Write a sequence for this structure.
């Protein structure tokens, strides 16, 4: 297994900072954008996000897997992150895993497809059984699950991983 321990954080861009500071008005609202977004940022725990997971589920036109399987995997991911309290920061762990259901990640085979950022690890066959292994190994113990990983392309300055194809895709 490969370690996915993060080495640094990617700073906010000046554009992000502009929108956070400017307080521009939202259409038809007395609240400023920064007020309403700041509340959302805190409610969702966005400052604590260590990883962001995207999973191909609920596709308009299912190609990589059956739509029902994609939704089953999505629901499993949501429930397990909540059960393990990985979805929000807690006192003994100040980081969290954010999740997003994507209509299609454009890898239209061996789905559901799941990608974990900033590590840039792409997983195939992300069934509930595979997701449990990924949660335990990758999210909790910082180890890539090679049985399901098919590509690693970390975001710049996010980890000590190198871009590479992982050839062990027998599953």
């Amino acid at each position: 297994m490969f370690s996915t321990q993060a080495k640094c954080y990617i700073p906010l861009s000046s554009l992000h900072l502009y929108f956070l500071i400017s307080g521009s008005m939202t259409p038809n609202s007395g609240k400023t954008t920064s007020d309403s977004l700041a509340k959302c940022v805190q409610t969702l725990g966005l400052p604590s996000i260590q990883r962001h997971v995207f999973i191909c589920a609920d596709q308009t036109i299912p190609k990589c897997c059956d739509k029902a399987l994609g939704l089953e995997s999505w629901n499993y991911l949501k429930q397990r992150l909540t059960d393990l309290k990985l979805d929000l920061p807690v006192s003994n762990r100040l980081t969290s895993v954010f999740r997003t259901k994507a209509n299609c990640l454009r890898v239209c085979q061996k789905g559901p497809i799941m990608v974990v950022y900033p590590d840039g690890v792409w997983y195939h066959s992300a069934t509930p059984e595979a997701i449990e292994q990924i949660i335990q190994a990758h999210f909790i113990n910082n180890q890539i699950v090679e049985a399901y990983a098919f590509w690693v392309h970390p975001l710049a300055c996010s980890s000590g991983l190198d871009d590479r194809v992982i050839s062990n895709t027998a599953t």
Remarks:
- The mean pLDDT is 80.
- The CA atoms of residues 86 and 96 lie 5 Å apart.
